[in-house]
Amino acid sequence: MTRFLLRKAVGMLGVLLVLSLVVYAVFYIAPGDPAQLACGEKCSPAQVAQVRERLGLDAPVYLQYAHFLQGLVAGRDFSAGTGLLHCQAPCLGISYRSGEQVTDMIAARLPVTASLALGAMVVWLILGVGTGLLSALRRGRLSERLLTALTLAGNSVPVFVIGLVLLIVFCAQLQWLPFPTYVPLTEDPQQWFWGLLLPWISLALIESAKYARLTRSSMLETLADDHIRTFRAYGVSERHLVTRHALRGALTPVIALTAMDLGALFGSAVLTESLFGLPGLGKLLVSSVSLIDLPTVVGLTLVTGFFVVLANVIADVLYAVSDRRVVLT
Amino acid sequence: MSRSTFTPRRLAAATVTVALVVGVAACGPKADGGGSGSKDAAPQQGGTLTVLNQNPQDQFDPARLYTSGGGNVPSLVFRTLTTRNRVDGAAGTKVVPDLATDTGTPSEGATVWTYHLKDGLKYEDGSPITTADVKYGIERSFAPELSGGAPFLRDWLVGAADYQGPYKDDRGLAAIETPDEKTIVFHLNKPEGDFPYLATQTQFAPVPKAKDTGTKYQDHPVSSGPYQVVKNENDGAHLVLKRNPNWSSATDDQRKAYPDTIDVQSGLDPAVINQRLSASTGPDAAAVTTDTNLGPSELAQVKDDKALASRVGTGHFGYVNYLAFNTKVKPFDDPKVRQAIAYAINRTSVVNAAGGSSLAEAATTYLPNQEAFGYTPYDPFPAGATGNPEKAKELLKEAGYPDGLTITLTHSSETGKGYGPNLATAVQDGLKAAGITVQLDVLDGTKYSKTIHTVGTEPGLFLAGWGADWPSGGPFLAPIFDGRQIVTDGYNFNSAQLNDPSVNDEIDQINKITDHAEAAKRWGALDKRIGEQALTIPLFHPVYKRLSGKDVRNIVISDWTGVLDISQVAVK
Amino acid sequence: MAPQEPRAGEAPAASPAAGGRQVWRRLLARRTVLAAGLVIVLLALIAAAAPLLSAIEGQDPTSFHNDLLDSAAGGVPTGSFGGVSAEHWLGVEPGTGRDVFARLVHGARISLLVAVGATLVQVTIGVLLGLAAGLGSRLLDQLIGNTTEVMLALPSLVFAISLMAIVPSDFPRPLLLTLVIGLLGWGGTSRLVRAQTLSLKQLDYVAAARLAGAGRWRIARRELLPSLAAPVITYAAVLLPSNVIGEAGLSFLGVGVKPPTSSWGQMLSGATTWFRADPMYVLLPSALLFATVLAFTVLGDAVRTELDPRAASRLRVGTARGADGPTADGSGGPTPTGPGPSNAAEEATA
What we know:
The complex is a heterotrimer of chains A (329), B (572) and C (350). Chain B is of the alpha+beta class. Helix content of chain B is 25%, strand content 17%. In chain B, helix 13 (421-432) links the parallel strand 15 and strand 16. Chain B is globular. The relative contact order of chain B is 0.19. With 350 residues, chain C is mostly helical. Chain C is elongated. The model of chain C is unreliable at 1-18 and 309-349 (pLDDT under 50). Chains A and C meet through helix 1, helix 6, helix 7, helix 8 and helix 10 of A and helix 5, helix 6, helix 10, helix 11 and helix 12 of C.
């Protein structure tokens, strides 16, 4: 196990390194001049050249990448005009656009995205797994069909439609819910909850159908398993069978998928974040991409990539723990 | 805010500013707007005003802001030598004194401008404001660390072209003299009658050298205005401003500053902003927006709701959306082809694509339809409401295209903008009747901006827009039509690459005039003269329609910004 | 244990030719499946006959009708239900007056084409890389595994947006969309195929083929591909609807089809704000999208139920002695019922 984790950690570093290289390469090929953008359209060529120098964009691209790596390991200094701005290791650089340190920008937004993703996860697990179990155990009942239809409907309409419709209905017309805003959990837990409820539901509606189907099939498969059949033959009650034996095996893939979805959501809940005005990582990523704010894009890619890779490792470990046949090597 | 296009980055930076500053305004004494039911009660001090915006105020350094008239939110914190007149309608296009005692004394043929500071001016910490601080504020806007402002200072001040700001060059700008703490003198390299307008921009806000923290200054800029920054989160996504105890209305007759607190929340979806303002519940009852129009879909809703309609403010900011030609590209080198397209254009389709007649007024003049710009009505190629395809076909025949013509129109992928897909398809469909087949070439926002502003890559026909840095014909016409402003190694805005000595000369002549009304007349005449060459086809002037919460009072919308002025709004 | 006939060990169900007809018959016998199948056939017909359909209506998808709009009210269609009339069966588009029916049927072409194409790209790349990883050397496996990991970790939106910026603007946009969604979303398929390959490799008949001297490529083609068909088809049925939504997401972000072309995603991305003023305009593309996704999902689930139990039980025999890798079991890893978070299209819709 230790060897496995060690190997995974090394692999993770490699993956992240390649990720940053890929992003640098893509931006090198992409059109657009970050210095002109940072300076403004009305800047004279001489001014643009000054800004380019300040941002370090006058160096060859491989040197720029080397500076980036150096900053990660040892930190870097940037001109703040009145003095030097020290960016401590691991330094992801400063934003071309705002001049802020990328690490600060990410740190400020991480709690928002984490709140969104984790809360949505709770909702989709309740909704998805509930529906899945219901449809596996009580096939054909009305309640099962209704829930299945609901989750499927959620899955087949883009979030920007569902979210806005929910918002108009529940916040504007019925006024049952406040308009979503982000209030930090540490500031006011109650406002945090109410402010995020609608984004959670919107996001969860999209994901829950997948979970319902996975839970259902996984449950059916487990119930058909030899050892469950044996238990049943011995007269163990169906209720006991489900809660004590089948559930554990059936939920393993669900938990693994949850880990992976959660990891991916850190960088990809863009539409939800934009629609509900949540200042999260995904939203920052998209705006940084269109503004060619390379340090921010690379920084965000590394952070969100880290969560994805981590989630994959967690999923692997989960299988190993739940299934003794699997040996981690 | 004269930008011919907004690149996305500008969306974050300049647009914000511009939008904030320039947002929406009412043309003429506002016919609508104002809090429902409470219009007559006198506005009171106190309360919290909420501002709901799309674009975060991600730059708040006075050196980096690109504003028109000092900005809307920025103008609450930064006072400048002069400022815009904060009254409704056309009178709001006037420039008035702010820190200075008057709008400036010109001498030596408007190449030297002198200002004196009012008495008793203080920063938020109680220390006195001096002209040295104004000079320093301008100087630091030349630092590459703090780029982003308008190009005029660099272009106009003597010896400023290569100046790199006080961090690299502590000798300062010799073009700005401060003989004493109250006097400041500017030396320009050419006559500029519009200098008082330039002095409204935030670069003219005082910055105490001892408090300057370079790129970090924007986190807490030292206030000279009625409010100071107490919170600036997530890159300006959330700003909280509180009353500045050292500001006094005795030295500031422009800003009313009724609310105690101003809470600026941005990064919001436009549809959500309008839903919140329309629901107007809780704190949203005292909310306004400075950068979000009512969308077309919401207008349909407002039409059926009188109470809601009474909360809509209408404004006009000097802006034009137009089709730009590159006359170096065939077949647009032929004036007949350009005229044919001008005749064929269907402005009804165009206006509908821009949100309908409530949000856009069909335009045949390049200058905005406001007196301050020198608006002179003209229509050299009358196309009527839906185009004149017969006349267009005739001209095409004369030009050697009897069987119609296929052309390419370049546009941006950004939806909801004046140069996005909606407008492009409207132009495309409109030209069909005249036998002109339009192929659309869509470029992603950043690429679009770079392509159309680079001399070598500029397409033959593209969608563009231009907005006013201040309400005057100069900054509207000169960057686009002055042959000496053609830039071959950077961003070029003279898209027709017109270099007509008589036009250049006329621009120089008008710049010497310090009487705004007289200059306006000449700008109007020049616009007409250029318009007849069909170098651009004006499409429409946008109209701003903005909702405000039901408790919001004293809504003032000048034609300078087109948006309600936050410094005038009351919530009690 | 080592029969001379390489195919002797093969379970009867793994022969797609023999089992296929049975499965087909059983599928057709179920009403919901029949309905889903009909919906899909209908949609394909609509897409194929789009020009004909709009010609019957007498409209085309790009012509403006300004006379049908209330310009002062933001360009909302005059008349009830979004301007429904004998000329415009489903009303007209706000702001332009373009015919909604014509745009919907023409939009079906793009939406379905992009989704099907992207799914094919995903499946092809996924199967090839998955097979190579499963059958190749340990080094190759690791290389492919790491590449997949990088693809999964890469924010697909960054790539989608930058690709759109890099590619010349005259490159056909539907093809570009297909490639972008396809190239970014093969990670799940590749993992699934690798896992299945690893477990199939342990099976008697494959071992037998290997002992009989069959090369790797031959084993992949003759022995593995037929058995992989079931899980891959099932997985594709899950990928396809999420690719439909992916196109919508990209359109919403401004990197969809070029105007004046219509697609469901393009229609929806501009429609949501009209929810109150012109509900028809939102409901129509939403309903079509819903029907498409639902039909494919139902069909996918049914195919799985028919195909998978046998595949699963066969797998279970093979894994008795422990398989190589954590996701070798039929119920592990990205199972056919649950795509991983690897689908670019899906990410774009969150």
